[in-house]
Amino acid sequence: xPPFTYELHEISHYALAPAxxxxxxAQLWLRSPANLLSYTHVGKNIMASAELFERxxxxxVKPAFGLTRTTIAGKPTAVVExxxxxxxxxxxxxxxxxxxxxxxxxxxxxxxxxxxxxYATLLRGTVEAFLPFYDVYITxxxxxxxxxxxxxxxxxxxxxxxxxxxxxxxxxxxxxxxLHALGVCQPAVPLIAAVARMEAEDSPHVxxxxxxxxGPIDTRRSxxxxxxxxxxxxxxxxxxxxxxxxxxxxxxxxxEVYPGFLQLAGFMAMNFxxxxxAHLDLFNQLVEGDGDSAEKHREFYDEYLSVMDLTAxxxxxxxxxxxxxxxxxxxxxxxxxxxxxxxAIRRVSLLTIEGENDDISGAGQTLAAHDLxxxxxxxxxxxxxxxxxxxxxxxxxxxxxxxxxPRIREFHSAQTLSSVxxx
Length: 423
What we know:
Layout: H1 5-15, H2 17-30, H3 41-57, E1 69-72, E2 75-87, E3 90-97, E4 108-112, H4 124-130, E5 135-141, H5 156-174, E6 179-184, H6 188-200, E7 209-213, H7 225-242, E8 244-245, E9 256-258, H8 260-270, H9 272-288, H10 291-304, E10 310-311, H11 312-324, H12 327-330, E11 334-335, E12 338-339, E13 349-355, H13 368-372, E14 381-386, H14 398-422
Parallel strand pairs: 4-5, 4-6, 6-7, 7-13, 13-14
Antiparallel strand pairs: 1-2, 2-3, 3-5, 8-9, 9-10, 11-12
Helix pairs in contact: 2-3, 3-9, 5-6, 7-11, 9-10
């Protein structure tokens, strides 16, 4: 990356601070019920323009999950978010429900959130859909720009180590209750690698099942623009053009990272027309007074525009191993110098979920896991392709809630019953 790119990004943000202050004052003035201009077409246009400018130049902070209640067996109960395990680059969050209202303990569900630019809160809808049926946990990865260089490195091997440690932590609490693991997008690869390493060592802490959702297991299948770009440019290009140093003013100053703002720019560029249209729609909704539609836009983009930095070593190793060399499907991936053998997986059921219109992980890339886990019986495997959804729709939205989440619950129930019958 050209020198001082991160610094220039910071300077541009602070340079717009006076304009944002004027925009905030304009909104405050125009929203006053005593201001007659606010009721006119001109006033509404000015107010909509001011909000749009503020939102497009704002620094979005990490959102909160905000999941304080759920309903179990038709009865509402409070939910408390707790940190139950922690290492420098990750916290394991537990959504503890006050009452379960069921005769038998519900299974545990470990959701492995992506470490790909967005915060774990991007999976808020995923967590919410499973709360009535599972004791839910999620990995909450730390923004690399908040970690001083003295905290050490964090790479792909560390990611796998963290997942192995988390499975061990949760397994010890299970007491016969099934533990299911779910990896959304990028974590599909380290999750299946962690399971393979635990299986190879005959660990008693393996989960009962793993669900891989829209993950890049083999990006040679149905390659997307993202996959083709990585293959074309190669690892060196990404190291030269995508890595920057955290500037002064952050705890992580001096750490090499893949900046979140670059990842976001890439995401936005892939569907640029759609994002432009969405913001033009917001402007019209604000002018017309369509508060409900405007609020939905705010909620989505407050989450989507909140990004975090990744450690350079993790990002570059992931690009190299997953998207350039394809070491996992080729049987060449290693963890701490030991080969990752997916043939070792014999006890952990496998479910793969894909989206028909996924433009990040093309259909077939996650399904490839079935061929690679060749020693896993067919009765312990299942796949599901959801029609008419893109990447985000694989783990969130109406079709996820109506079709995908129930499929996952059915798979878990079927595998649990099979395990009981085999005893």
